[in-house]
Design brief:
Blueprint: H1 14-21, E1 28-30, E2 52-56, E3 69-73, H2 79-84, E4 98-100, H3 102-109
Parallel strand pairs: 1-2, 2-3
Antiparallel strand pairs: 3-4
Length: 110
Amino acid sequence: MHVSLPRCLSLPVLPQRMVSLQSSCPVVSLDVPSGWNVEQGDVSGTGLRPAMLVSLSLPKLCARGFQGRHVLGGRFVPPPLAAKLNLCIPPYTGAQQWLDITKMTSSSTS
């Protein structure tokens, strides 16, 4: 079965459409905002400017320059592996699956 996207949602046009919509509605990006380099951030200056970033497991290097609300989601890295790799994962409480790390990341970037 072949599924085709409406012309207005074709993949080459979709990121441009999202950038134009972000002024009228908040954008939430997952892990790395569209158009950003995973290590250097929005180097071209044309990537999304999300209101919120949800990082999975650990923030990526590109999040250093992020200015909005930043949430860490998912407990995907087992503690023994985190210790072996010397990863600094903030502590979760009980069965909590996400943490608001906005203040942690914004204070480390200034």
